[in-house]
Amino acid sequence: MSGQGSSQPRPHMLSPSAWNRYETCPRMYWLSRQGLPRKAGMAASLGTAVHASVEDLLQFDISAFGDDEAGWLPLEGERLLKARWEEEKKSFMETPRRPQWKEEKWKEALRHQRGAIRMLLEHVGIRALDSERITGALWRRIQKLAIAVEGELKTVDGRLMGRLDLLMADVDENGAMVGWLVADLKTGRVPQGELKTEVNRQLRMYRDILLANNPNAPPVRTQGWYTSDSSKWSAHGENVLEDAYEAWQATKPSPMPLDPIIGDTSCGGFCDWKAWCPHWWNWRAQNKTLHKDDFSDAVVLLLDYNASNGSATLELCEPADASGRAIPTGIQQPARFDARGKEALDELLASGHQGPMYLGSVMTHGRSWRIGHWCDVLAWNPLPDGVEFHREPR
Ligand code: SF4
How many CB atoms lie under 10 A from the CB of residue 229? Predict the structure, then answer.
């Protein structure tokens, strides 16, 4: 930290998603904590809107609907989802680093919400009931079983935390509570065969914080609820808190970059911080996979640009050394920037940027590269190993 500015540093806390990021690549985790521009994403926004709307449905006052009254839930569900959708859209559009908002995903969001409602019905033993037929009495019954909705879970020492989607009472056929169910709504891809390691760890961390804070808790089980096909996946395994505290220790704020884990599952997968990391680039250059995929990341110079139609000539660069200093190769590459990709380039140029740029996920097949709405266009600014980084005061 620079120590400048008046705000008090927040105490260090570790969430399951930060822990997962650290496990994937400590450098990725470290970069995510340096106040660098965050990237908005459609899948994340859709997920947040669906989550929030289901939580709203579980909490909203339905006293106006009689016990036998049906037909209201689909309308209310859609109304609540729409409000959350608009909220998400606003914050997405206010994020400078963003792809294109896809309004056509609205129908998908509605489907996910319906999937979540189906799983809540199953929790009270009701299958294949059209949401049109959900009555006031039935929804009140479900609402009563929700012990906590979107609650913050934190260990008493404040070091480990997580956002709990749903804590539901498990009841027997007579309606007596027999345990607690931690349910985490997932709008992502349904697991193949078993939960992914990181999801399993996340769910167990919720379970174990809950148990640590409630020594007299009834039996607790924990499940990922996948809204796309309404499937429920249980997490099993040892208590994770000891490992989580170790990770907390290892992730304490430090101006010195943490070590990278370089490779296919980290750099080749989902990393939002490549514009600030020299390692993926050296790795690709060394194993000769630079610009070889249909969608590739690249560091380039902009030689020529027609701002009216987005056509450009790029010069490809290669890493000069481990720090990621760029050297031009003399290889020229025609390209076209369009939609959000073009806007991002125009914004970067308007900020006065000169020198190498990082382009993320460029479509490289065809004579001309295409930098479209899904691409990152950022200044190339790799933070080298072994050099402390102090962020600029805002
Ligand atoms: S590019 Fe690779 S090494 Fe660098 S932060 Fe991302 S995952 Fe880690």
Answer: 8
User: Strands (DSSP E) along 139-259, which ranges?
Assistant: 146-154, 161-171, 177-186, 220-226, 231-234
109 and 155 in a single domain? The answer is yes
In contact, 355 and 380? CB cutoff 8 Å:
yes
**What is the residue range of 43's domain?**
16-245
Q: Does 53 reside within a domain?
A: yes
* Enclosing H/E stretch for 29: helix 26-32
Residues 146 and 211 in one domain: yes
Residue 152: strand pairing partners: 163
Ligand 1 atom at minimum distance from 277 CA: 4
In this structure, is residue 279 part of a structural domain? Answer: yes
Q: Using the predicted structure, report yes or no on whether residue 20 has a pLDDT greater than 70.
A: yes
Portion of the chain with pLDDT greater than 70, in percent: 97
Same domain? For 232 and 280 the reply is no
User: Which position has the token pair 């904590």?
Assistant: 33
Domain harbouring 148, CATH code: 3.90.320
Q: Residue 2 pLDDT more than 50? A: no
pLDDT tens, 73-86? 999 999 999 999 99
Which DSSP symbol is given to 98? -
Strand 220-226 and strand 369-371: pairing? Answer: unpaired
Which secondary structure element, helix H or strand E, spans residue 142, and what is its range? helix 136-145
What is the CATH number for 326? 2.40.50
Same domain, 285 and 179: no
Whole-model pTM?
0.92
Whose CA is closest to atom 5 on ligand 1?
28
Residue to probe by mutation, ligand 1, list 20, 23, 24, 27, most atoms within 8 Å of CB: 27
Q: Kindly state whether residues 190 and 285 are assigned to the same domain.
A: no
* In a shared domain, residues 299 and 217: no
Average pLDDT score over residue span 272-288? 97
Q: What residue ranges line ligand 1, CB within 6 angstroms?
A: 25, 27-28, 31, 260, 262, 266-267, 271, 273-274, 277, 279-280
For residues 143 and 280, membership in a common domain is answered with: no
> 320 and 210, same structural domain?
no
φ/ψ (deg, to 5) at 191: -60, 155
Ligand 1 atom with minimal separation from the 274 CA? 1
